Automatic annotation (TrEMBL):
<dbReference type="Pfam" id="PF14748">
    <property type="entry name" value="P5CR_dimer"/>
</dbReference>
<keyword id="KW-0028">Amino-acid biosynthesis</keyword>
<dbReference type="GO" id="GO:0055129">
    <property type="term" value="P:L-proline biosynthetic process"/>
</dbReference>
<dbReference type="InterPro" id="IPR036291">
    <property type="entry name" value="NAD(P)-bd_dom_sf"/>
</dbReference>
<dbReference type="Pfam" id="PF03807">
    <property type="entry name" value="F420_oxidored"/>
</dbReference>
<dbReference type="InterPro" id="IPR029036">
    <property type="entry name" value="P5CR_dimer"/>
</dbReference>
<feature type="domain" description="Pyrroline-5-carboxylate reductase catalytic N-terminal">
    <location>
        <begin position="3"/>
        <end position="96"/>
    </location>
</feature>
<keyword id="KW-0963">Cytoplasm</keyword>
<keyword id="KW-0641">Proline biosynthesis</keyword>
<comment type="pathway">
    <text>Amino-acid biosynthesis; L-proline biosynthesis; L-proline from L-glutamate 5-semialdehyde: step 1/1.</text>
</comment>
<keyword id="KW-0560">Oxidoreductase</keyword>
<comment type="similarity">
    <text>Belongs to the pyrroline-5-carboxylate reductase family.</text>
</comment>
<dbReference type="InterPro" id="IPR053790">
    <property type="entry name" value="P5CR-like_CS"/>
</dbReference>
<feature type="binding site">
    <location>
        <begin position="67"/>
        <end position="70"/>
    </location>
    <ligand>
        <name>NADP(+)</name>
    </ligand>
</feature>
<dbReference type="InterPro" id="IPR000304">
    <property type="entry name" value="Pyrroline-COOH_reductase"/>
</dbReference>
<protein>
    <recommendedName>
        <fullName>Pyrroline-5-carboxylate reductase</fullName>
        <ecNumber>1.5.1.2</ecNumber>
    </recommendedName>
</protein>
<feature type="domain" description="Pyrroline-5-carboxylate reductase dimerisation">
    <location>
        <begin position="159"/>
        <end position="263"/>
    </location>
</feature>
Amino acid sequence: MGTIAVLGAGKIGEALLSGLLSGGRSAEDLLFTERHPERAAELESRYGITNVTIEEAAARADLLVIAVKPQDIDPVLAELAPLLRPSSLVVSLCAGLPTSLFERRLPPNTPVVRVMPNTPMLVGEAMSAVSPGSHATREHVQTVTELLSCVGKVVEVPESQQDAVTALSGSGPAYFFYLVEAMIDAGILLGLPRAVAERLIVQSAVGAAKMLDEGAGHPVLLREAVTSPGGTTINAIRELENHGVRAALLAAIEAARDRSVELGRAQQQD
Protein backbone atom coordinates (compact mmCIF):
# COMPACT_ATOMS: atom_id res chain seq x y z
CA MET A 1 0.00 0.00 0.00
CA GLY A 2 2.93 2.37 0.45
CA THR A 3 2.21 5.51 2.47
CA ILE A 4 -1.36 6.09 3.64
CA ALA A 5 -2.79 9.51 4.50
CA VAL A 6 -6.09 9.98 6.30
CA LEU A 7 -7.63 13.33 5.41
CA GLY A 8 -9.81 14.22 8.39
CA ALA A 9 -8.86 12.62 11.70
CA GLY A 10 -12.24 12.53 13.42
CA LYS A 11 -13.56 9.44 15.21
CA ILE A 12 -13.55 7.21 12.13
CA GLY A 13 -10.25 8.59 10.83
CA GLU A 14 -8.59 8.03 14.19
CA ALA A 15 -10.05 4.53 14.46
CA LEU A 16 -8.61 3.63 11.07
CA LEU A 17 -5.17 4.93 12.02
CA SER A 18 -5.27 3.02 15.30
CA GLY A 19 -6.37 -0.15 13.51
CA LEU A 20 -3.61 0.13 10.94
CA LEU A 21 -1.03 0.46 13.69
CA SER A 22 -2.50 -2.55 15.51
CA GLY A 23 -2.41 -4.45 12.22
CA GLY A 24 1.33 -3.95 11.93
CA ARG A 25 1.64 -0.78 9.86
CA SER A 26 4.52 1.49 10.84
CA ALA A 27 3.70 4.98 12.07
CA GLU A 28 6.27 6.21 9.54
CA ASP A 29 4.02 4.96 6.72
CA LEU A 30 0.96 6.85 8.02
CA LEU A 31 -0.02 10.51 7.80
CA PHE A 32 -3.12 12.49 8.72
CA THR A 33 -4.58 15.95 8.25
CA GLU A 34 -6.38 17.78 11.04
CA ARG A 35 -7.33 21.45 10.98
CA HIS A 36 -7.57 21.87 14.78
CA PRO A 37 -4.08 22.22 16.30
CA GLU A 38 -5.04 20.81 19.71
CA ARG A 39 -6.57 17.71 18.15
CA ALA A 40 -3.58 17.26 15.84
CA ALA A 41 -1.13 17.48 18.74
CA GLU A 42 -3.18 14.96 20.72
CA LEU A 43 -3.11 12.41 17.89
CA GLU A 44 0.58 12.91 17.17
CA SER A 45 1.36 12.29 20.84
CA ARG A 46 -0.95 9.27 21.10
CA TYR A 47 0.09 7.44 17.94
CA GLY A 48 3.40 8.91 16.79
CA ILE A 49 1.88 9.71 13.38
CA THR A 50 2.71 12.98 11.63
CA ASN A 51 0.08 15.64 11.00
CA VAL A 52 0.52 17.18 7.53
CA THR A 53 -1.20 19.58 5.17
CA ILE A 54 -3.29 18.31 2.25
CA GLU A 55 -0.46 19.40 -0.05
CA GLU A 56 2.04 17.26 1.86
CA ALA A 57 -0.37 14.33 1.96
CA ALA A 58 -0.88 14.47 -1.81
CA ALA A 59 2.87 14.59 -2.41
CA ARG A 60 3.82 11.77 -0.05
CA ALA A 61 0.90 9.32 0.09
CA ASP A 62 0.08 6.51 -2.33
CA LEU A 63 -3.38 6.02 -0.83
CA LEU A 64 -5.49 8.91 0.44
CA VAL A 65 -8.47 8.19 2.69
CA ILE A 66 -10.96 11.05 2.75
CA ALA A 67 -12.82 10.90 6.05
CA VAL A 68 -14.41 14.33 6.35
CA LYS A 69 -18.10 15.10 6.82
CA PRO A 70 -20.05 15.24 3.52
CA GLN A 71 -20.74 18.94 3.96
CA ASP A 72 -16.99 19.62 4.22
CA ILE A 73 -15.99 17.84 1.02
CA ASP A 74 -15.91 20.83 -1.36
CA PRO A 75 -12.84 22.66 0.03
CA VAL A 76 -10.97 19.37 0.47
CA LEU A 77 -11.44 18.32 -3.16
CA ALA A 78 -10.75 21.84 -4.42
CA GLU A 79 -7.38 21.83 -2.63
CA LEU A 80 -6.55 18.23 -3.46
CA ALA A 81 -7.41 18.22 -7.19
CA PRO A 82 -4.41 20.17 -8.55
CA LEU A 83 -2.01 18.29 -6.26
CA LEU A 84 -3.03 14.67 -6.75
CA ARG A 85 -0.49 12.37 -8.39
CA PRO A 86 -1.72 10.09 -11.23
CA SER A 87 -0.74 6.94 -9.32
CA SER A 88 -2.68 7.83 -6.18
CA LEU A 89 -5.69 5.81 -4.99
CA VAL A 90 -8.50 7.76 -3.34
CA VAL A 91 -10.75 6.09 -0.76
CA SER A 92 -13.91 7.90 0.34
CA LEU A 93 -15.43 7.30 3.78
CA CYS A 94 -17.94 10.13 3.23
CA ALA A 95 -21.55 9.04 3.75
CA GLY A 96 -23.81 9.53 0.76
CA LEU A 97 -21.19 10.83 -1.67
CA PRO A 98 -20.92 8.85 -4.94
CA THR A 99 -17.63 8.03 -6.63
CA SER A 100 -18.78 10.09 -9.63
CA LEU A 101 -18.51 13.22 -7.49
CA PHE A 102 -14.83 12.54 -6.80
CA GLU A 103 -14.12 11.48 -10.37
CA ARG A 104 -15.65 14.70 -11.66
CA ARG A 105 -13.62 16.97 -9.38
CA LEU A 106 -10.32 15.10 -9.32
CA PRO A 107 -7.94 14.57 -12.26
CA PRO A 108 -9.16 12.31 -15.09
CA ASN A 109 -8.91 8.55 -14.51
CA THR A 110 -8.35 8.90 -10.75
CA PRO A 111 -9.23 5.54 -9.12
CA VAL A 112 -11.80 6.00 -6.36
CA VAL A 113 -13.22 3.40 -3.99
CA ARG A 114 -16.26 4.29 -1.92
CA VAL A 115 -16.52 2.85 1.59
CA MET A 116 -19.29 2.87 4.18
CA PRO A 117 -17.79 1.89 7.56
CA ASN A 118 -19.36 2.21 10.99
CA THR A 119 -18.27 3.25 14.47
CA PRO A 120 -17.39 -0.24 15.83
CA MET A 121 -14.19 0.45 13.89
CA LEU A 122 -13.17 2.07 17.19
CA VAL A 123 -12.93 -1.41 18.75
CA GLY A 124 -11.76 -3.29 15.66
CA GLU A 125 -15.23 -4.64 14.85
CA ALA A 126 -16.34 -2.44 11.94
CA MET A 127 -18.59 -3.58 9.14
CA SER A 128 -17.39 -1.85 5.98
CA ALA A 129 -18.90 -2.05 2.49
CA VAL A 130 -16.70 -1.14 -0.49
CA SER A 131 -17.67 -0.14 -4.03
CA PRO A 132 -15.24 0.65 -6.84
CA GLY A 133 -15.61 3.71 -9.04
CA SER A 134 -15.35 3.55 -12.82
CA HIS A 135 -11.53 3.80 -12.82
CA ALA A 136 -10.81 1.47 -9.89
CA THR A 137 -9.43 -1.98 -10.72
CA ARG A 138 -9.77 -5.28 -8.86
CA GLU A 139 -6.32 -4.64 -7.44
CA HIS A 140 -7.52 -1.33 -6.01
CA VAL A 141 -10.52 -3.03 -4.41
CA GLN A 142 -8.28 -5.72 -2.93
CA THR A 143 -5.96 -3.07 -1.53
CA VAL A 144 -8.84 -1.28 0.19
CA THR A 145 -10.26 -4.57 1.46
CA GLU A 146 -6.91 -5.44 3.06
CA LEU A 147 -6.72 -1.95 4.53
CA LEU A 148 -10.13 -2.20 6.18
CA SER A 149 -9.65 -5.78 7.35
CA CYS A 150 -7.41 -4.35 10.07
CA VAL A 151 -10.45 -2.80 11.74
CA GLY A 152 -13.25 -5.32 11.09
CA LYS A 153 -15.05 -7.18 8.34
CA VAL A 154 -15.49 -6.09 4.73
CA VAL A 155 -18.03 -6.82 2.00
CA GLU A 156 -18.11 -5.57 -1.59
CA VAL A 157 -21.42 -4.25 -2.97
CA PRO A 158 -22.49 -2.43 -6.15
CA GLU A 159 -22.42 1.31 -5.58
CA SER A 160 -26.18 1.43 -6.22
CA GLN A 161 -26.61 -0.36 -2.87
CA GLN A 162 -24.45 2.02 -0.83
CA ASP A 163 -27.34 4.19 0.34
CA ALA A 164 -29.04 1.07 1.72
CA VAL A 165 -25.77 0.01 3.37
CA THR A 166 -25.46 3.46 4.94
CA ALA A 167 -28.95 3.15 6.41
CA LEU A 168 -28.52 -0.43 7.61
CA SER A 169 -24.97 -0.83 8.92
CA GLY A 170 -23.56 2.69 8.74
CA SER A 171 -26.29 3.98 11.06
CA GLY A 172 -26.97 0.51 12.48
CA PRO A 173 -24.96 0.79 15.72
CA ALA A 174 -27.12 3.75 16.75
CA TYR A 175 -30.25 1.60 16.51
CA PHE A 176 -28.72 -1.00 18.81
CA PHE A 177 -27.55 1.67 21.27
CA TYR A 178 -31.06 3.15 21.25
CA LEU A 179 -32.59 -0.25 22.02
CA VAL A 180 -30.07 -0.97 24.77
CA GLU A 181 -30.75 2.46 26.29
CA ALA A 182 -34.49 1.74 26.35
CA MET A 183 -33.97 -1.71 27.89
CA ILE A 184 -31.77 -0.27 30.64
CA ASP A 185 -34.49 2.27 31.40
CA ALA A 186 -36.98 -0.60 31.55
CA GLY A 187 -34.77 -2.38 34.08
CA ILE A 188 -34.69 0.73 36.25
CA LEU A 189 -38.48 1.01 35.96
CA LEU A 190 -38.72 -2.58 37.24
CA GLY A 191 -36.61 -1.69 40.28
CA LEU A 192 -33.09 -2.69 39.29
CA PRO A 193 -30.11 -0.40 39.98
CA ARG A 194 -28.84 1.26 36.80
CA ALA A 195 -25.44 -0.46 37.00
CA VAL A 196 -27.07 -3.88 37.31
CA ALA A 197 -29.54 -3.24 34.50
CA GLU A 198 -26.73 -2.02 32.24
CA ARG A 199 -24.56 -5.04 32.96
CA LEU A 200 -27.44 -7.44 32.31
CA ILE A 201 -28.40 -5.87 29.00
CA VAL A 202 -24.91 -5.21 27.63
CA GLN A 203 -23.78 -8.79 28.27
CA SER A 204 -27.04 -10.11 26.83
CA ALA A 205 -26.38 -8.06 23.69
CA VAL A 206 -22.78 -9.29 23.45
CA GLY A 207 -23.85 -12.90 23.87
CA ALA A 208 -26.70 -12.64 21.38
CA ALA A 209 -24.43 -10.99 18.80
CA LYS A 210 -21.83 -13.73 19.27
CA MET A 211 -24.45 -16.43 18.70
CA LEU A 212 -25.48 -14.76 15.46
CA ASP A 213 -21.90 -14.23 14.35
CA GLU A 214 -20.95 -17.84 15.02
CA GLY A 215 -23.87 -19.17 13.00
CA ALA A 216 -25.86 -20.60 15.90
CA GLY A 217 -29.02 -20.25 13.82
CA HIS A 218 -31.31 -17.89 11.91
CA PRO A 219 -32.51 -14.94 14.03
CA VAL A 220 -36.07 -16.29 13.91
CA LEU A 221 -34.97 -19.69 15.24
CA LEU A 222 -32.83 -18.13 17.95
CA ARG A 223 -35.74 -15.97 19.06
CA GLU A 224 -38.12 -18.93 19.05
CA ALA A 225 -35.70 -20.89 21.24
CA VAL A 226 -36.21 -18.27 23.95
CA THR A 227 -39.96 -18.02 23.42
CA SER A 228 -41.80 -20.66 25.44
CA PRO A 229 -45.57 -21.17 24.99
CA GLY A 230 -47.45 -18.92 27.39
CA GLY A 231 -44.19 -17.62 28.84
CA THR A 232 -42.70 -14.22 29.59
CA THR A 233 -40.97 -13.71 26.24
CA ILE A 234 -44.04 -14.25 24.07
CA ASN A 235 -45.93 -11.69 26.13
CA ALA A 236 -43.13 -9.20 25.57
CA ILE A 237 -43.02 -9.97 21.82
CA ARG A 238 -46.79 -9.44 21.61
CA GLU A 239 -46.40 -5.95 23.07
CA LEU A 240 -43.58 -5.14 20.63
CA GLU A 241 -45.84 -6.20 17.75
CA ASN A 242 -48.82 -4.29 19.18
CA HIS A 243 -46.72 -1.14 19.30
CA GLY A 244 -45.50 -1.58 15.74
CA VAL A 245 -41.81 -1.89 16.59
CA ARG A 246 -41.02 -3.94 13.49
CA ALA A 247 -42.81 -1.45 11.21
CA ALA A 248 -41.09 1.46 12.98
CA LEU A 249 -37.66 -0.09 12.32
CA LEU A 250 -38.47 -0.58 8.64
CA ALA A 251 -39.62 3.03 8.37
CA ALA A 252 -36.60 4.34 10.28
CA ILE A 253 -34.11 2.52 8.04
CA GLU A 254 -35.95 3.70 4.92
CA ALA A 255 -35.74 7.27 6.26
CA ALA A 256 -31.98 6.90 6.79
CA ARG A 257 -31.63 5.57 3.23
CA ASP A 258 -33.58 8.54 1.88
CA ARG A 259 -31.34 10.97 3.75
CA SER A 260 -28.24 9.30 2.32
CA VAL A 261 -29.67 9.77 -1.16
CA GLU A 262 -30.37 13.44 -0.39
CA LEU A 263 -26.77 14.03 0.75
CA GLY A 264 -25.47 12.63 -2.52
CA ARG A 265 -27.87 14.67 -4.64
CA ALA A 266 -27.08 17.89 -2.80
CA GLN A 267 -23.39 17.54 -3.59
CA GLN A 268 -24.06 16.80 -7.26
CA GLN A 269 -25.88 20.07 -7.78
CA ASP A 270 -22.80 22.09 -8.68
